[in-house]
Amino acid sequence: xxxxxxxxxxxxxxxxxxxxxxxxxxxxxxxxxxxxxxxxxxxxxxxxxxxxxxxxxxxxxxxxxxxxxxxxxxxxxxxxxxxxxxxxxxxxxxxxxxxxxxxxxxxxxxxxxxxxxxxxxxxxxxxxxxxxxxxxxxxxxxxxxxxxxxxxxxxxxxxxxxxxxxxxxxxxxxxxxxxxxxxxxxxxxxxxxxxxxxxxxxxxxxxxxxxxxxxxxxxxxxxxxxxxxxxxxxxxxxxxxxxxxxxxxxxxxxxxxxxxxxxxxxxxxxxxxxxxxxxxxxxxxxxxxxxxxxxxxxxxxxxxxxxxxxxxxxxxxxxxxxxxxxxxxxxxxxxxxxxxxxxxxxxxxxxxxxxxxxxxxxxxxxxxxxxxxxxxxxxxxxxxxxxxxxxxxxxxxxxxxxxxxxxxxxxxxxxxxxxxxxxxxxxxxxxxxxxxxxxxxxxxxxxxxxxxxxxxxxxxxxxxxxxxxxxxxxxxxxxxxxxx
Length: 484
Hints:
It is built from 17 helices and 12 strands. By secondary structure, it is an alpha/beta fold. The protein folds into 2 domains: 2-125 and 169-230 and 409-483, Alpha/Beta hydrolase fold, catalytic domain (Rossmann fold, 3-Layer(aba) Sandwich); 143-167 and 234-398, no CATH class. A 10-stranded mixed beta sheet has the order 1-2-3-5-4-6-7-10-11-12, sandwiched between helices. Strand 8 and strand 9 (289-291) form a beta hairpin. Residues 80-256 form the AB hydrolase-1 domain.
């Protein structure tokens, strides 16, 4: 019996045990400073923990904790929906609060489950004790910068080995999918629904592959390509983000009376080039931080995945502050200051540790730094702003453990609705077709002329939102692929 259980867990199915998993439910607020927990409590949610195997090949061995929230259905209940916000390694505890609103009439008909995946957030944590966010990180403008950034990535891997080495081999997407199925069992559900953004689309696809027949409605928004997902997933994003930057520059040029960055796209980009040049020299002193050519690309890359006017106004404020810093020290506004605090201090150590460990645990990468240096150099002309970031090596090139399982091949006929924007700078549109090839019964809902990562309930497009809600209510996929 025990051997059958081990084999079932390894194959992706879950056998019955003498003691089925149970969730201990309670109030969400941990202490007076816990604003997230307080908000969940005010909304009527409850929080709980589930013990799951650290190592699914040893189901009776050490356990870790998976933390979650639940916002129960108040209407005609359809079932339970598990939510994932991407990352990899993004926390999901508060997701039910915004998804209940985004799902409109469907929102009150589901028990919404916000999970903190294994080793993330309130779940048993992994923390490499990182001095800065560290990854993704740019290789900079020259060989010296590249070597400094390479040493940083090696240091991150060494810190993860020293501070979390005992669990790194158990951090991967397949184990997270197994955790989700343990949640399903503990909730007493024959099937669950699932909604995932970004990396959550890959996690959802892996769950569909490993646990066929255990899902009802599935929405995958901002799709990853299962064949290329891994530590080098940014590599394909360089051209899309160069295009997004040019598009923003054109937007700013038409508003020169407001922002004074230039009246043409080329004039605005010349200002950005000036920022790059100074960052590569003495650096840009902004508040307590110095932004150099290794950190600047992530500052300009991070907020670029939203083409709505309010987001672009914030982004333009970043550029204005960076430009002022080319002439001497400046103080940042709250948005840029908060971004730099997260990037250049240990503030996000735990979250980045989880993200890095999941990516490195899923897929091996080349370990020779010269492979990445050559790739950056070959693409500097066509990817002048972001190629040194998207093509840079990660800590996975120095990771102390190898992936414990092969990458999951997605090839099944489980139904799902894929949502994609044709100009998404983070999940390029070609990913949608690749994911759909693996999910042969999936339908694709495309939003045209949008440069936004994460569409449903976030972008404000009624066509997309209404079609997703219709599917969540009826359970019927569109007969054909659709365009909004």
